[in-house]
Specification:
By secondary structure, this protein is an all-alpha fold. It has 5 helices and no strands. The radius of gyration is 65 Å and the shape is rod-shaped. The N terminus and C terminus are likely disordered.
């Protein structure tokens, strides 16, 4: 600041803005519980954070200006103090008027008197900026806590919903199995179908018995017929080659013997 009016303005700004904002911030932090806060609570907290962040940006700019005012004023005082020796020599030699030197001294004294004020304004601006920074940090932590709690709550909700769906599926499955069991034990249609299948099975068994009884004489007759055929044709089963030759030789002799008397009879008749 370049004059005392600047200090008054800074003090009023700190009292007005930080006082009201401090009460608002304190109330918001005290009433905010991340575990139970709603989305509307978070939105209000976020809005206050944005407002505070804007004030923090302005406070930083104000502090930078106050700091540069102090730096420039100190440099000016230091340079003027160095120039006092030169001015004293020129005043003694009559190279500069006393009025000019007196004006220079007045400005130097005024600047030295103003330096503590400028430094206080710088300190006040820094304190204001630091307080706003603490508030922004507190709000940021509260929002982070809320988001973490909300994420955890959503995860718990998803897990609970999945567990509910699983239990619902289990209940439905148990009901289906129970209904199927009841249907199997009490269903008229199934009972009738079972009895029909048993009746058909009994009928098939009866028909098989009748068929077996009817088939038995036929099998016996076929067996007797086969025996007769084997006797008529001669049972040659299991004979050796030599036995076969003898058998065949015997048949030829028998045929020849049977033919000889017939020839003799024919000769006798002719004679």
């Amino acid at each position: 600041m370049s004059n005392l009016n600047g200090w008054g303005l800074t003090a009023r700004l700190i009292s007005k803005h930080f006082g009201a904002l401090g009460d608002k911030v304190s109330e918001a932090i005290a009433n905010f519980d991340p575990e139970t806060a709603t989305e509307a609570d978070r939105d209000r907290l976020a809005a206050t954070l944005r407002e505070t962040a804007q004030k923090l940006a302005a406070a930083r700019s104000s502090f930078d200006k106050e700091h540069m005012d102090v730096v420039r004023l100190r440099e000016l005082i230091a340079n003027d103090e160095k120039a006092t020796a030169t001015l004293a020599d020129r005043l003694a030699s009559g190279k500069i008027s006393e009025a000019t030197v007196s004006l220079f001294c007045d400005e130097l004294e005024a600047n030295k008197a103003r330096l503590p004020v400028e430094m206080q304004e710088e300190a006040d601006a820094q304190e204001y900026m630091n307080e706003l920074q603490k508030i922004v940090d507190a709000f940021s932590k509260q929002l982070a806590d809320f988001d973490a709690a909300a994420k955890k709550a959503l995860q718990n909700l998803a897990a609970a919903k999945a567990q509910k769906d699983l239990q619902q599926l289990r209940v439905e499955r148990q009901e289906q199995l129970s209904n199927l069991s009841v249907m199997q034990s009490h269903s008229t249609a199934l009972n009738a179908l079972t009895r029909r299948a048993q009746n058909v099975s009994n009928e098939a068994a009866g028909l098989r018995i009748v068929a077996d009884i009817t088939q038995k004489p036929l099998d016996q007759a076929a067996e007797i017929d086969a025996i007769r055929k084997s006797v008529a044709q001669g049972d040659t089963t299991g004979e050796t080659t030599l036995e076969r030759l003898k058998r065949l030789s015997g048949q030829n002799v028998a045929v020849a013997a049977a033919a000889a008397p017939a020839s003799t009879a024919s000769v006798a008749s002719a004679a």
